[in-house]
Amino acid sequence: MQSERLTLKRFRMVKLMLSIYRMRAFKVLFPLCIIALVYLQGQHELKRVHLGRTLYELKLVPAPLIMQMMGMGLLAVAVMSAYDYLIRAQFRIKIGLWRTFHYAWIANTFNNLIGFAGVAGVGLRTLLYRKSGVPLSVLTPAIVFLSPLMVSGLSLLAWGNLIGLLPAGMLFKEHYWLGFAVWGMALYLPLFVLVQRSSLFAKWMNKDRQRTPWVTVAASLGASLLEWAFAGVTFWTIGNCLLGGVPFLPIFGIFIVAAIAGMLSMAPGGIGAFDLIALLGLTQMGYEPDQAVAVLVIYRMFYYIVPWLIGLVLAALEIGLQGRKFFRRRD
């Protein structure tokens, strides 16, 4: 009898290890499949791209338009600090408003560029908030609370694609698999709301064990909606500056579909999948591939690279300041 129990226990352990292995394999293979599928769909457009012509398009951009595009990109990144202000209020984190913005900029810009499924943002938030004296008992639930809500705004905007408010019909007609991706993202929203309002979530997250108030759920959704809406407006602003007079809703709709594809690819900043889907959408609207690539290059520059460089300086100053305090204490 005892040997049978031991055998059963070993079987369960092997079964658990196999399931973990399959999950890890899925996490690697699924993004690769998405990237491969997007690449196959976009081969024709990629062959029509000429790097020299793209660089020529970028050289023609006047300085005032460059400032306008960069300003919009920086504003879009600044808006992402709403996440940190939300957890500051929800979990009563005792840090000043400016320092909260400071930490948010560092964590969000590193997370945008490096990604690793949000690990970069989580790691930096933990490091920065811990150095400011926030206990792990407060910080851990705050970060766990933050992780699932970052996609909720994109899920809400996906419904705009599905009901035709944010049209991306040509993409769906020629690449029908994108419809499944958008539907999958749209269905995340009701799931998010149900989980936020569940008693189990309250038990894990809320010290008073009460269900998350509707005001907090709405604020969470609002913070995420601000992030994705301003990112989309940045994309449109750059397209409008480089292509001249582009319609807002179709470009915004293409951005949402491309962002969903980038999210599914799990690549840092959705690089590869996002760019190819956006390229497909812009060329379907009648723009030249070289012009479309110029839009993508500027978007990457002003929404990812420039804010990250600022975040890098802020992080260096923050770590340097903390280091000086540490050595002063030792002296």
Order of helices and strands: HHHHHHHHHHHHHHHH
Mean pLDDT: 78
**Beta strand count:** 0
Question: What is the terminal-to-terminal distance?
Answer: 65 Å
Beta-strand fraction estimate = under 5%
Annotation field: number of helices: 16
**Rg measurement, Å:** 22 Å
Instruction: Choose one word for the global shape.
Output: globular
Structural class: mainly alpha
* Biggest beta-sheet profile: none
Helical percentage: over 70%
Low-confidence residue ranges: 2-28, 41-46, 326-331
List the helices and strands and how they pair.
Layout: H1 2-47, H2 51-59, H3 63-79, H4 82-90, H5 97-114, H6 119-131, H7 136-149, H8 152-162, H9 169-174, H10 177-186, H11 188-196, H12 199-205, H13 214-244, H14 248-265, H15 273-284, H16 289-330
Helix pairs in contact: 1-15, 2-16, 3-13, 3-16, 4-5, 4-7, 4-13, 5-6, 5-16, 6-7, 8-10, 8-13, 8-14, 10-14, 13-14, 13-16, 14-15, 15-16
